[in-house]
Sequence to fold (760 residues):
Amino acid sequence: MALPFTIEAQTGTARLGRIQTAHGPVETPAFMPVGTVGSVKAVPQDVLEELDAHIILGNTYHLYLRPGHELVRSLGGLHKFMSWDRALLTDSGGFQVFSLGDLTKVSEEGVTFRSHLDGTSHLFTPERSMEIQIALGSDIVMAFDECTEHPAERERSRTSMEMTLRWARRSKEYFDAHEHEVPWTQIAGSTPATPALSGIVQGGMYADLRRESAERTVELDFPCYAIGGLSVGEPREKTVEMIAAALEVLPKDKPRYVMGVGYPHEIVQYAAMGVDMMDCVLPTRAGRHGLLFTSEGRMNIKNARFAQDQGPADPKCSCKVCARYSRAYLRHLFVAAEPLAGLLNTIHNLAFYLDTMRAVRHAIRLGDLSGLLSASVSLA
Amino acid sequence: MALPFTIEAQTGTARLGRIQTAHGPVETPAFMPVGTVGSVKAVPQDVLEELDAHIILGNTYHLYLRPGHELVRSLGGLHKFMSWDRALLTDSGGFQVFSLGDLTKVSEEGVTFRSHLDGTSHLFTPERSMEIQIALGSDIVMAFDECTEHPAERERSRTSMEMTLRWARRSKEYFDAHEHEVPWTQIAGSTPATPALSGIVQGGMYADLRRESAERTVELDFPCYAIGGLSVGEPREKTVEMIAAALEVLPKDKPRYVMGVGYPHEIVQYAAMGVDMMDCVLPTRAGRHGLLFTSEGRMNIKNARFAQDQGPADPKCSCKVCARYSRAYLRHLFVAAEPLAGLLNTIHNLAFYLDTMRAVRHAIRLGDLSGLLSASVSLA
Fold:
């Protein structure tokens, strides 16, 4: 298990780097579009390639339920199944299982939950999560963690963090013994590449617990470290404080990944702090709901003031949507509930997020993030 | 008003031709994808271009209600609004208004109907239909006709046919006086092109009425003739009989358009009979419902037997969907209600229809349609 990571430039705490996955390189800081059930919602894979996405995320919980990890494995893994030969990261299933709330029951062994599709009962354990992610053929597998609910008392947060650490150890043990079972090592033949397992820092909203969680997760020795349990309803200053606490401890020569964030100005800020990877459903979900992210701020495309607006969604954007369609047309599509609306809005939003990260990388290379930071904060 | 039409080859009654519209050439026999509200549902315009669609259809009724023809005119017309610089044909609004059933009231003046969106009352007359289609900037405008309901007694069909003839005259008078008002003649400047008006043959399910309708419509002298009022529930032999009756009479040097048809084997048959243009929602609507048209027949992609099928939807198809994705993946997308399902299925179905017409044109050039006819009939 390895995940080669080279840092090519640094500006302040920000790093420009490159992660070498078994399915190609990922330039960091990277934003990862979310492809929940084996599809970045509405977007064909060739468009993701055009957008220059080098890594996307799949959700273990959803793929386990449908179409099922055994089916995906039998078809050669998720890359082959969805025809995506670039990198894939899968979450552990933990966060989404916990999101089911009353339908779940947590024990030392793992989490029992009921499917949101048919109510059937299932058990996720660290071992099971590893088995599923390996069957899917993920390049970057996430350790099975407990996403501490918010708000949570200190003692509850510590107890939860301790469980996540025990689960991290179990995840690693299972992963180390089974990582060679990914469907693509058997297929590729010539490339004896393996997936990598990422640890996850928890600790609720307590900076000292976050530091302790980071220290003890690092002791387990992962090639990548994620910071989980954020974006769960806490104020943003708290998010920043928790990220900062973990980053203090996490090794600088390994990729650091903040899960489930954020708005454009947030991902710029986190990248400036030294975060290397982020993912969020925001650009895709907001796009389907008619919310566009632009260099002029957020834009609700259904607003009547766009009815006759012949300009592009974002005059500074060079994506294929902004190059071709007007705000008036995008508004019409959305108001008329045309299926094309979701696709075009999503393409633009993904382009905006990926361009934002590209601009961050460029600024790190040039040695000055200040302009980008102040510009993005003004859009908050 | 003119619609240059050259016939390049003939095989039996089938014709290989080229219609020169103000927005480029259309090779015939042509299948026209339906872009109801200014969008071929789910499909971006660049993909329509890749599919080599040279003409698409817009629905006057829908565009009139939303976004409104005045808005479209003020934005430069439908071509510019939707960013489509190839040919556009608009229907008259008549068929869809009649489809509203109890919500409509027909008089000599026109049709009063209630919007399916908000229940407001509107009046379509021949003049109003022309005004709307000209405002939209259609290349081929359809005369306002009454689509006779099915079944209809002979006398009712005659009365309705007579009304359509009077409305055709009124359509033509208004059109001739206003065709120069299309938004794009004012914009293009150098190209003094104008739209063309197509007459429509009616006559219910009575061959002699169809012939009479054709004769009297031809007397009005249109550059294009459509055969309407079919695919309204009649048996297919009746459809064929009505088309044949009209084609006997319609001038051979003008394009002949059968509205609202059909299945792949039907469009091959009609092309063989001498029909030059067809349109149908079938490939797009069926695609969104998981029905794929293939060289092996119709395929319901949600069928469990495709769950592990790694082959393309159609092994003989070279569309971008068949080139990249498996039946197993398409089935998964459909079962999981992923928005990408509708797009991919629609792209394949449109490719299949457009490829079918391309094969028809090739066969006419080669002088033998028999193989194509028997192959397509076997898929019925």
Chain B is about 45% helix and 20% strand. Chain B touches chain A through 38 residues (CB under 8 Å). The longest helix of chain B spans residues 339-366.
